[in-house]
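User: I'm preparing a small set of examples for a lab meeting where we compare how different chains pack in three dimensions. I only have the primary sequence for this one, and I'd like the structure in C-alpha cell form so I can line it up with the others. Please keep the answer compact; I'll paste it straight into my notes.
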Amino acid sequence: MAEQYRKKRDFSRTPEPAGGRRKPGKRPIFVIQKHDASRLHYDFRIEVDGVLKSWAVPKGPSTDPREKRLALPTEDHPLDYADFEGVIPEDQYGGGTVLVWDTGPYDNLTEKDGKTLPAGKAIEQGHILMRLHGKKLKGGYALQRTGKGKSARWLLVKTKDDAADARRNPVSTEPKSVLSGRTLSQIAHEEDNGADSQ
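Assistant: Understood. Below is the C-alpha cell output for the 198-residue chain.
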C-alpha cells in the first residue's frame, strides 16, 4: 500500500515516515495538513483500507456550505503520515513545511440502497459523505467527483448542519497545529536551528 508515495521519496533525505508502523484503530481518522510547498495548500486525508486517501485543497476547507472547494487527488499516504510535522527538503517531492492543522475520527455516512457503502467503494464511485469529529472542523462534509477522464475534478463541500457557519473562516483565524500548537514559521525556524546546531 502507498507504493507510489514511497517511489516518490528518498527516505535518507526526507523526514517523512516510510510507513508501516501505525496500525488502524477502532475508528478511521481524518487529518488535514497545512503544507507550505511551492504554493500554500491543505492536504485533506481520510483513512480508508489501511492508507490515507489524499486530496490537495488549494484554498483549504470551508465551514460555509455555499463554498465548493477544489480538491485535487494525490497519492495514497501511509497511516504514519497522520502525525507528521516538519520540513521536507526543497529537493524532495512536495518540499516545504508541514503541520497538522486538524485531525480526529470520522464516520462514513455514504449510503446506497439503504446500506452503508464502504469508503473505498464510495471514493471509487465518485462521492463520499462523512461526519468529521475534529478539533477545528465538525459535522458533515462531502467529497464529490465531477466530470470524467482527464476533466474529472473533486470538490470538498460542507453539508448543511449544526456545524455549518458561513461567518467562520478557520483557515485564516486558526493557523496553528492541533498537535504542537506551532505555526508553519515556528516549525521551519525550529528545524533550521536544529540543523544548524548539529
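A couple of notes for your slides: The mean pLDDT is 91. Helices lie at 3-7, 119-124, 170-173, 184-196.

User: Perfect, thanks.
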